[in-house]
Amino acid sequence: MTTPLPQPTGQMPDTSIYERRESAVRSYARSMPRQFNRAEGVWMHDNKGGRYLDFLSGCSTLNYGHNHPVLKQALLDYIAADGITHGLDLHTDAKAEFLRTLEDVILKPRGLDYRAMFTGPTGTNAVEAAIKLARKVTGRELVIAFTNGFHGMTLGALACTGNAAKRGGAGVPLSHVAHEPYDGYYGPDVDTADLLERRLSDPSSGLDAPAAILVETVQGEGGLNAASPEWLRKIATIAKRHGALLIVDDIQAGCGRTGHFFSFEGMGVTPDIVTLAKSLSGMGLPFALTLFRPEIDQWAPGEHNGTFRGNNHAFVTATAALRHFWSDGQFLADIRRRGTMLERRLDAIAGQYGLTTRGRGMMRGIDMGSGEIAASVTAACFERGLIIETSGAHDEIVKVLAPLVIDDAVFSAGLDILEECIRAALTVTYGVAAE
Amino acid sequence: MTTPLPQPTGQMPDTSIYERRESAVRSYARSMPRQFNRAEGVWMHDNKGGRYLDFLSGCSTLNYGHNHPVLKQALLDYIAADGITHGLDLHTDAKAEFLRTLEDVILKPRGLDYRAMFTGPTGTNAVEAAIKLARKVTGRELVIAFTNGFHGMTLGALACTGNAAKRGGAGVPLSHVAHEPYDGYYGPDVDTADLLERRLSDPSSGLDAPAAILVETVQGEGGLNAASPEWLRKIATIAKRHGALLIVDDIQAGCGRTGHFFSFEGMGVTPDIVTLAKSLSGMGLPFALTLFRPEIDQWAPGEHNGTFRGNNHAFVTATAALRHFWSDGQFLADIRRRGTMLERRLDAIAGQYGLTTRGRGMMRGIDMGSGEIAASVTAACFERGLIIETSGAHDEIVKVLAPLVIDDAVFSAGLDILEECIRAALTVTYGVAAE
Amino acid sequence: MTTPLPQPTGQMPDTSIYERRESAVRSYARSMPRQFNRAEGVWMHDNKGGRYLDFLSGCSTLNYGHNHPVLKQALLDYIAADGITHGLDLHTDAKAEFLRTLEDVILKPRGLDYRAMFTGPTGTNAVEAAIKLARKVTGRELVIAFTNGFHGMTLGALACTGNAAKRGGAGVPLSHVAHEPYDGYYGPDVDTADLLERRLSDPSSGLDAPAAILVETVQGEGGLNAASPEWLRKIATIAKRHGALLIVDDIQAGCGRTGHFFSFEGMGVTPDIVTLAKSLSGMGLPFALTLFRPEIDQWAPGEHNGTFRGNNHAFVTATAALRHFWSDGQFLADIRRRGTMLERRLDAIAGQYGLTTRGRGMMRGIDMGSGEIAASVTAACFERGLIIETSGAHDEIVKVLAPLVIDDAVFSAGLDILEECIRAALTVTYGVAAE
Amino acid sequence: MTTPLPQPTGQMPDTSIYERRESAVRSYARSMPRQFNRAEGVWMHDNKGGRYLDFLSGCSTLNYGHNHPVLKQALLDYIAADGITHGLDLHTDAKAEFLRTLEDVILKPRGLDYRAMFTGPTGTNAVEAAIKLARKVTGRELVIAFTNGFHGMTLGALACTGNAAKRGGAGVPLSHVAHEPYDGYYGPDVDTADLLERRLSDPSSGLDAPAAILVETVQGEGGLNAASPEWLRKIATIAKRHGALLIVDDIQAGCGRTGHFFSFEGMGVTPDIVTLAKSLSGMGLPFALTLFRPEIDQWAPGEHNGTFRGNNHAFVTATAALRHFWSDGQFLADIRRRGTMLERRLDAIAGQYGLTTRGRGMMRGIDMGSGEIAASVTAACFERGLIIETSGAHDEIVKVLAPLVIDDAVFSAGLDILEECIRAALTVTYGVAAE
Fold first, then answer.
1. Which CB contacts under 8 angstroms, 24+ apart, belong to C73-77?
2. Across residues A261-290, what is the average pLDDT?
3. What is the dihedral of CA D340, D345, D347, D350, to 10 degrees?
4. Class of domain C70-326
């Protein structure tokens, strides 16, 4: 059987309606000027007949690919039967089923005892709920976040986000958060966890006692920096020693992306609070959760709420996804095999051109040295039918976020395109040829 | 034909999974301890065979009722055809169709020239985007909001919300917002718009120059206080005179609830920014929009973003809803007739017991004088199979938020139940009997 | 004996050193371009031989006039004897003597039980200490201040200040303070204390529970608005009911200016905290105190400090001033007689020209209707040798702040000059002639 | 001639008036429970006839000793002649004379072109003015301060202060300031200026673009950490590169304490803004200045003000001090000789007991390893008649801040007492005997 390949047509859509009626804030549509209409698995189709291979996966929202048939059927059946669509925070069959599945398939096998808070169905809402809870429980205001961290765009989460352009959009100074250096920020010789401990142990450092330490184990937007288990364990110990809660923001790295369901598995830490969103619904539907230890579930009823915290369609597809992919070890084995495949392939490319790689599991990238070169790579990929994006403070990392379900041969074909585009970009820029 | 009536069974569901795994923050589930599984139109069904009449409508999220067949079919067709589910902010057929419909069915006929910003699909995200934009455009920080206003739970929107219990959940002081008295706040003899003008005209009042004035025309959560057109026009004039943008938060009052698509129609004001969510998707799917004049569309690409800002399922159902209900005047006529019916009925009940009513269009309520009495009314209604909730600073308003599509006879039957429960509650409390 | 009169020479000093070396922030020196070198009592002398009558009194810092001989001698003796000049917060004879005199001459006769905190010797430091303490004691953040209030220029006190130009200098948004309307702010028919009570009693008003209500009984900078005893008592009751501390900022109105030592005497309120500065040292030396009930003296040692909190020269002159002026009732009788004289005179002038007066005791002024006219009056006065300034949101009030020790005949002569200049200014502006 | 020695009597004063009427916030009076009444040069006298040698100098406020005869006489003459005492910001002979002297004696010889802003006469007011100006000039909010920095107690300056106990007194979260590691904070191998550059160059570090970098060249309260010239030059370069103003807070280290008038002299940097206070008046009178380059003198008239910004007594003594001590190089030579003497002596003591020393010039100390031991040393010194205090995050540094005018023999005798008390404390604690 032949491996299917992307088939872009190169035809541009009519974009007049967007120019007339959509805000200038739109962004992906600018670098990928097509109008899409259909998608299944790893493939997206535009309205001119073009076919694109998706190495972006909705920024890790589509770990199981587009419109996975099992999830799709579950949703069709549910809708056809007039299942509750919008349920505020009322009990519904779909929610009960989701909670039971979360308990049986995810929490129990991992020995985790968390309660689930259904926040408004976006990641930033989950982060806002997490830091509110940490502040309430500890009676402190300061949240320690990290350089290059990305946690959302509403004011509470945005204060935790490192990116200056995003922060500038706030229009007010962002307060009650300190950004400390992430693992490796000052190079391999400086243990930034030690620096943090030094400052928190010093009553005159100017760093107030924190309510929480908020960390991504891999910084999806911030350049695919991956924390080491040792560093993460130190951070967990520091949090505990100084009376702060440890929050792992697993919105991008969770749901299998790193080769575990939770990205912190196997690292020797158990966060007090975990945020999930993106791939949680499995099908790309808006859904977010804040999980936490029962002991800190100190919310008053309705103290944090939101109209769409009962998105039952998402409960249905999330339940189907947990059951289908996480009931046994097959999917995990697949992810890990593909993660290793990706690692080897990127290392080989990087080695050839003197570049470096970043990341963990199935979230990895190559540092192109500048945002300009990285943008030329992704633009060339798109011309070839490969949807791929950048990451990092300067958008200098070309980032592979393929669906975790991608067929190995297709994956390989996509990486071939990427390699060719990198080679071409470097040749144009530096006149480099592969050795 | 007999008018269908609620048929509650009184049987309680097994709630152990919620107690074990859902956060204590859940609230509606406490006063309505049933597990729902199915719904159509104005009816919700629990898993013990009970049927409930919905006078809450997902807090005005289900203006067209549950699972409206036209919307449902559109969504089933779209999913079956593998339409794009999650599209970041990429162009899709579903988005283009939605924008065109918004333009043709809503904006053009009303002479409104707005651009649409697809924010994260919750109301609070839309509000955060609105105040960010106002701060950016004006270069000012302060937002003027109003007593009893409700605008969301993320830190930026929460700062605009009046409710002390919600605000207390922030864990940090809420800044950059001043709450001024809403229309009628100090009684009928004090024009609070004049008070605001007085303060803004005084360079020594301590009230900084505002970026925006953020207002609901009817305060859905804050007690169904309805602003008069005169007051609203004054506020609009004040905003303009002092260089502030006027933001109408139409999340609860919009999408037909007041007898217009936008709640500010016919009041002689054109907001600079409008937020929509709740009933926008028509079927209860998460969807939110921030609309604004093209002149203030000063966003940089991606300056505000969010994973789920391209919820294409919602685009599909929203498009179907706009076309089905808003292409001609039939639906509007129905809403207004039902609004008048509701007004008369509540006025009659209130008159009988010396109570007062509040609200406008199809969002009206009765002030029971205390939260305790109001809670006893809604609890009694629920026992009779009527889902209804309270509003107001002390939860003292029993609030009727029936689906706008409700059959007149069913509506009347539901209001009969409400009246009986009010009578019973007042008899218990005061020994009052109807005259 | 002839009443001495001002004798300005009209000669300008050499100001090159100021232009070269002093910041552009200087202000009084611009409208009074003379170089002064000597002063005694109510008279200031410039270095060209001119003599000026002082109706400004260092903004009420020189209630006992310049260089009062009793205070001057006490200070000369102290310095000659090598008395401690700078004592940090160490015990010194001078401090003990001051505390004993404060207790005997001021506190005991008034039945007041306060502890004294020696803050940094400026009014703004005293206010910062007051609001810090209130926040610590109550565990709350919000301070309620009033429209047109002036409390200082450091960030904590500036947030409590109403003036937009001063606030704008902060360079950061000013937080944790709400400005509510002062007595009479919305005209005689609106009781603004009732408005405040309404908002604080409403859990959904958006006004958080306050740590303190901070009020001046007469707003010295804000336009000489004088609170009525009834209003002030209501404010005190509101503070108590809502768990807030009542802080009276008596920096400008205290030390006799209103006809009492404390401006709140005789009004039926006892503040929890009082701030004093300006005339406290009696001779114009930097000195400030924060007084409070012993029960709320919850400071940890050194929790608030400052290098110059032990300005012993000021202790010496303050002690001499308290003893000389406040040991019996003579000075009070003089102030009240002069206050009545001032009231009658200003009322007569105002009546003649259809103007209104403001203030209480020896801090009164005439509202000239515009800052421009007021400035023309004070400029004309200065040309005639009378030093006088304006107050109010638009600098529209010509403000008489004569030394309290002024001789009646000299006072009358000064008021003659003022009247003539007002007449002249109004004639120029409106062509008005006295009737 | 015999070297005079301290002669404490050990008699305690009557402190009842303090217990009754002074706030619990008093601190130095607790560890030095005497009542002082007289002082000259390096000696303080209590009211029981005891004599104390002052190694604290009002925390570096009395660099020229107590009541220096030249300054004292100048002040006596000025007061006797009825010189202006309190002058708001009016031109006075005393101010002109001070400005001319500052220009001639300090600025011109050092090639510095600064304008002087007379702030409220406390250090914290000067710092507040400095950061306000920096924020105004740059249009940015964030100030970068350093670990262990101390800048004052009003809210703006307190936000820049590192000490947790002081910060906790604010009662509100302290915002708009980031504390970065000072020189040597992470040990000798980590160049913290490089860390700062790394973060400011990274648009995703979460550190917003700063308005100012605020630094002490020696941290007087924070443990006598002395920045190296190399580090300070890097910081200056970083400030310039990133559009921030460099503010040197020279309140404690200025006025000769380090062996230069300004502590930054000879280090290769010229700050944009400098704050001075403490020893500026020379005699311990409240006085503070904010100096800055004329180009950034962007204040509007009166935009920052304060009642006591014209403390003319302080102008008189400051002028006398500048002329007497700074007109030629004699005083500097004396300071440097004594600084070297102090360095050798402390190094010798430290070497003997395995301790380390800190500081520069005449502000040096010994790290006793714990606050407990340091407190026992200073208590023992006080019993022997030596007034000396601690510094540092844990109050672990015994700090020598002798008057700069101290006689060499007396200095030596005081250091003998210190050495003996250190020896005794270490013997008690560790059983260590000098080798």
1. C74/C316, C74/C317, C74/C319, C74/C320, C75/C283, C75/C313, C75/C316, C75/C317, C75/C320, C75/D79, C76/D76, C76/D79, C76/D80
2. 98
3. -160
4. alpha beta
Which regions of chain B carry the CATH code 3.90.1150.10? 16-67+336-430
Residues in C touching A139 (Cβ below 8 Å): none
Closest residue by Cα to residue C309 from C288, C291, C280: C288
Contact C85, D314 (CB under 8 A): no
Q: What is the C-alpha to C-alpha distance for residues B234 and B236, in angstroms, rounded to an integer?
A: 5
What chains are in contact with C, requiring at least 3 Cβ pairs below 8 Å? A, B, D
Put simply, whether A173 touches C (Cβ < 8 Å) is: yes
Q: In sequence order, which residues have a C-beta less than 8 Å from that of residue B351 and are 6 or more positions away?
A: none
Nearest CA in chain B to A12: B91
Residue from B98, B215, B236, B75 nearest B149 by CA = B215
Task: Note whether C199 contacts B178, CB cutoff 8 Å.
Answer: no
| Whether the Cβ atoms of residue C194 and residue C235 lie closer than 8 Å to each other | no
Structure tokens at D332: 């500097």
- Per-residue pLDDT band for B435 (boundaries 50, 70, 90) equals very low
- Per the CB < 8 A criterion, the answer to whether A299 and A133 are in contact is yes
Q: CA dist D110 to A34, C9, D261, D327, Å?
A: 66, 39, 10, 12
The pLDDT score that the predictor gives to residue C344 is: 98
The A389-391 sheet, strands edge to edge? A356-360, A363-367, A397-400, A389-391
Query: Residue D359: left (phi > 0), alpha (psi -120 to 50), or beta?
Result: left
| Residue C22 · residue C14 · CB < 8 Å | no
| Residue type at position B164 | A
User: How far apart, in Å, are the Cα atoms of D52 and each of B155, D6, D40, D168, D398?
Assistant: 57, 5, 11, 34, 17
Rounded Cα–Cα distance for residues A428 and A419 (Å): 14
Tokens coding B72: 């449902």
Could you report the predicted ipTM of this complex, rounded to two decimals?
0.97
D 36-95 → C contacts, CB under 8 A: 36-40, 44, 47, 56, 58-59, 61-62, 66-67, 72, 75-76, 79-94
Q: Sorting pLDDT into bands at 50, 70 and 90, what band is B432?
A: low
Distance (Å, rounded) from C-alpha B190 to C-alpha B147? 15
Strand bridging mode B115-118 / D245-249: unpaired
| Distance of alpha carbon A224 from alpha carbon A230, whole angstroms | 18
Output the six-digit token pair for A392. 């990092």
Q: Alpha-carbon distance B216 to B232, whole Å?
A: 10
What stretch(es) of chain C map to CATH 3.40.640.10?
70-326
**Which residues, in sequence order, are CB contacts of A104 under 8 Å at separation 6+?**
none
Q: Is D2 on the interface with A (CB under 8 A)?
A: no
Residue C429, pLDDT score: 77
Mean pLDDT of chain C: 96
* Three-class secondary structure of residue A101 per DSSP: helix
Instruction: Report, at the CATH architecture level, how domain D16-67+336-430 is classified.
Output: Alpha-Beta Complex (3.90)
Give yes or no for B165 touching D (CB within 8 A): no
**Buried residues in A262-273 as b, exposed as e (16+ CB within 10 A):** bbbbebebbbbb
DSSP helix/strand/coil, A247: strand
Q: Is residue A104 over pLDDT 80?
A: yes
Please name which of B54, B97, B92 lies closest in space to residue B417, comparing C-alpha atoms.
Answer: B54
Neighbours of C295 (CB within 10 A): 10
User: Within the 188-227 window of chain D, which residues sit less than 8 Å (CB to CB) from chain C?
Assistant: 211
What pLDDT is recorded for position D431? 74
State the pLDDT at residue D13: 95
- D202 vs A175, A209, A393: nearest CB: A393
Q: Residue B374 corresponds to which tokens in the numbers above?
A: 């109001």
